[in-house]
């Protein structure tokens, strides 16, 4: 049974930082690309950052230079370091896993709330 468990969300002032973590179990972690999505109230879910099984990264334009995704294959974890947070970053953040070579994310965490105050 695949499980993705996020942690690290919370309340932070604009300009501050948070680090989200996602612990994966029940899958061969190194074979999966990992992503962080977010969904704000009234908005569609969007892919914020992704990291391939080989370590290549990609980012939503609005977070480039502020967010960094990383993975630790030895610990089966993926992290999202978020700096210079803005109020528009407020959302529920979800960790997701996609098997290499498969087009869509198959597994999802339960989400962690990030609230950025002005």
Task: Please describe what this structure looks like.
By secondary structure, the chain is mainly β. It contains no helices and eleven strands. The strands form two sheets. Strands 2, 4, 5, 6, 9, 10 and 11 form a seven-stranded mixed beta sheet that branches. It has a four-stranded antiparallel beta sheet with strand order 1-3-8-7, with no helix packed on it. The termini are far apart. The relative contact order is 0.32. The model has no long low-confidence stretch (mean pLDDT 96).
Please give a handful of descriptors for the protein shown.
118 residues; 0% helix; 53% strand; 7-stranded mixed beta sheet; mainly beta; globular
* Rg (C-alpha, Å): 13 Å
Averaged pLDDT, please? 96
Indicate the structural class: mainly beta
Unreliable spans are none
Terminal CA distance reads: 40 Å
Number of strands: 11
Overall morphology: globular
Count of alpha and pi helical runs: 0
Give the ordered list of helices and strands.
EEEEEEEEEEE
Q: Please outline the major beta sheet.
A: 7 strands, mixed
Helix content: under 10%
Bin the strand percentage: over 45%
Topology (SSEs and partners):
Blueprint: E1 3-7, E2 10-13, E3 18-25, E4 32-39, E5 46-51, E6 57-59, E7 67-72, E8 77-82, E9 91-99, E10 107-108, E11 112-117
Parallel strand pairs: 2-11
Antiparallel strand pairs: 1-3, 3-8, 4-5, 4-9, 5-6, 7-8, 9-10, 9-11
In short:
The protein is mostly beta strands and 118 residues long. The protein contains no helices and 11 strands.
